[in-house]
Each structure stands twice: as C-alpha cells, then as structure tokens.
Target: AraC family transcriptional regulator
Amino acid sequence: MPPALRPHVVARTPYDVDFGAPGTHRGLPSTTITLVLPLDDPLRVSWARSAGSLHAAWASLSGLHTEPAAIHHDGSQRGIQLALSLDGARMLLGRPAADLSGALTDLDETGVPTELRQLPERLHDLPSWPARVALVDRTLARLAARAGDPAPRAEVAHALALLTRGARVEEAAAEVGYSRRRLGSLVRAECGLTPKAYQRIARLEAARRLLGRRPLAEVAAACGYADQAHLAREWSALAGCAPTTWLREEFPFVQDRDETPGAGWDHDNRDSN
Model:
C-alpha cells in the first residue's frame, strides 16, 4: 500500500472466498468505516437483528455500528474490502464518519468524489488482482492528496486512541483537557457513537483478533474484560452470538487474515499491503 494511504486505510483486502453453499456470514462492529467493492454481484447486506430491507450495492459502505450485519452470498464472493480510519473518512470520502453512523449505503448515495463513485465500474474492466489493487491504490492516493476534509481535531483523535487502548472515559477526557460531557459531544460528532460505545467496539475488535489463538479466559484478560463471562455477554450484545459460535461459523474463513486492527466485515484475507 502506498505510504500516503497508511494513515487513512487501515486495511485493504482482496478476497476470493468459496463458502461451499449459499448463506450469510456476520459483519462485526468495527472502529473503521467499511467499504466493499464486489466483483461478481452486488454485495447484499442487512442488519442481522432487524427486519429491514436488504441493501444491494456495487460499492457497499457502512459507518460505525453497534450491531452485527448479515452479508448474504450465493456460495462465493470476490472483491476488495477497505477499512478506512476516521481520518480516512474525512480525507477520502470528504465527510466525518458520524455522517455514516449506523448506515448501510453505497457511494452513489453519499455524495463522495466522482472518481471514487466510478471505481466499481472501472474495477470490473480489469483482468487481474494486481491490476485491481493498483487501481484502488492510485484512486485513493489521488483523493488523499486533495485533502478532502479537515482532519479530526488532535484532542479528539488522541482521546479515541486512549479509549482504544482501554482508558476509562473520564481518564481520556482528563488527558485531553475536556469534561466528560464535552468529550462525549465531540466524539459523537466525529464518529457517531458515544465514547463508551466506541470503547466497547474497540475491545470487541481486539478480542476478535485473538479468538481461536488463545483460550477465552486469556482473551478476556488481555482485552480488558472483567472475566470470561463479561467477554461472552459483550460478544453476544455486539456480535449477536457467543464467541464459540463465531469461531465455529466464521473462523475457518478469516484465520489467515493479518493482525491489523479494524478488519471490518472480514472475508478471507489476502491483504496486499
């Protein structure tokens, strides 16, 4: 990945997955904006817990959310998935992540730069993965160079980093010189979530990277949960299933992913960083 993109694109993942049969898989909450560019068919996504309609798009875009998504497939999927940082949402999409919070949408509905909206059609005309990845990188690098929207204020970015590392909300507020209430207003304006909700998602994200590699009790301790039971409750609340269920259903398809945080709606990871 071009160095200029690294502050804005947490992960860029080409994927080619054979599930063996039609079905769905879970898209877990993440601290990043998820942009998926499918190749064969529009990506069909819905919120797993609601009866809302299915959203189908050639460029599926999701803001930060606190419930799982259901990604529907016909037995296989190919495309490129991007996990954008909060800074990346401003720089590449030209808007704060809060504008997309809780949304399932696509590029045509969000008023992003024309060059980005044209990217799905241009990808379909290319014959190989290297060519597709190179096109995505070139497009995003050009957008980053234009600096679409001012970066988040430094205090908010620092507070979010502290929350990601497990600091209490009041500790993060004191560190950056804000009241808890003021910090809450600024964090919601930036990402669309309260500081506590953002922290819960960051903790889930950290646990997801360790599940299947370490015992659940060790995962709970390493990620800041009170105990294994706390981990299980939070996983059920945010992911819609027990950690063991996710391991059984999803882990075979994501076990080769890299350890970069913020993988968003995980597919079989063939990251070309």
User: Anything to note?
Assistant: The mean pLDDT is 87. Residues 3-149 form a domain with the Jelly Rolls fold (CATH 2.60.120). The chain has twelve helices and nine strands. The CA atoms of residues 131 and 231 lie 41 Å apart.
